Amino acid sequence: MRHREQYTLSPASAEQFWSARMDALERHLSAKTWALAAFTIVLSAYPIIRIAIPAIHHAIVPAVARAALNLIVRY
Question: Where in the chain are the domains?
Answer without folding.
Answer: 2-74
